[in-house]
Specification:
With about 280 residues, the chain is an alpha/beta fold. The protein is built from seven helices and 13 strands. The strands form three sheets. Strands 2-1-3-4-13-12-9-6-7 form a nine-stranded mixed sheet, sandwiched between helices. Strands 5-8 form a two-stranded antiparallel ribbon. The longest helix is centred in the N-terminal third of the chain and has 22 residues.
Length: about 280
């Protein structure tokens, strides 16, 4: 039996493995290798930041899992920033978009802030989700990048969303109105001109009134209440704009964990990521 196997082996390699066959094998290897490389290429690269120095949203885990699914579905590379690793020019190199997922309070030191500013000025993209507007209040440049900062929110309620720009990526197939349950952020003033609003919430469909007792400190050092009364006819929920050489997209949706399984929300979210990363999708 061994002798027979030896003969077959000798026949296979010495008789059949001719130079022509070798060239064919090499050609097939090259074809499949380079085809695999092309198929493995991602359309863009995103950095996900979930660091919090204030309130930590439980939905961050759900959001992270949703981001991983979006990356697989839409063929982009996603890398999550580890809190122990500093944001530097080198760390940001190669990323087309940086996603702030419910970050809170002061998460960057001065050097990291400077590096991120250079990244945006070089044409990078920014996506802010939910509490990203509750981040870095003292960093004036960041408040302009986001566009508006969080002020207060009432209890989570159901309300009616209004889609006011169907031309933006991800919103093409949305209905004009949509019933939604979330934590409705009330925002401060516009910190920059040129914000383009995408979605608003109808204050006639929920109660925006809220008071947070002794939340703030006045000039005299006394504790004072923070009060929310709504924003009137224009209560924005999502917007985008070009800023300082780069692109920015923000959505206030995303407080509730199950939201990250909602098809409408995922389409809205990917549309913002796609725009911020590529600058495409707007006629």
């Amino acid at each position: 039996m061994s002798k027979k196997l030896s003969i077959i082996t000798k026949f296979d390699f010495k008789t059949n493995f001719t130079p022509s066959l070798l060239r064919i094998c090499i050609a097939f290897f090259c074809f499949f290798f380079f085809t695999g490389c092309i198929m493995a290429q991602k359309q863009f690269k995103a950095l996900l930041i979930t660091e919090t120095a204030g309130w930590h949203h439980e939905s961050i885990l759900n959001g992270t899992l949703a981001m991983e699914e979006l990356a697989l579905t839409h063929n982009f590379e996603l890398k999550r920033q580890q809190e122990a690793r500093k944001i530097t020019d080198d760390a940001l190199k190669g990323f087309n978009v940086v996603i702030f997922l419910s970050t809170t309070a002061d998460i960057f030191d001065d050097e990291e802030q400077a590096a991120f500013e250079r990244y945006i000025k070089a044409g990078g993209g920014y996506v802010g989700i939910h509490a990203a507007s509750d981040t870095e209040y003292e960093w004036e440049w960041y408040t302009k990048l986001v566009g508006r900062m969080f002020h207060i929110h009432p209890v989570q309620q159901t309300a009616k969303l209004k889609i006011i720009d169907h031309n933006f990526p991800g919103l093409e197939h949305f209905p004009d109105t949509l019933l939604w349950t979330d934590e409705w952020y009330e925002f401060g003033k516009e910190n920059v001109e040129g914000l383009k609003y995408l979605i608003t919430v109808d204050e006639n469909t929920f109660d925006p009134n809220v008071t947070w007792a002794n939340r703030d400190t006045n000039a005299a050092g006394e504790k004072v209440d923070r009060v929310g009364k709504g924003m009137g006819d224009l209560h924005p929920i999502s917007w985008y704009h070009e800023f300082d050489g780069g692109r920015a997209f923000y959505t206030a949706l995303g407080h509730i964990e199950k939201t990250y399984e909602n098809r409408w929300f995922l389409e809205h979210l990917y549309g913002g990521i796609y725009y911020a990363a590529t600058g495409k999708g707007i006629d």
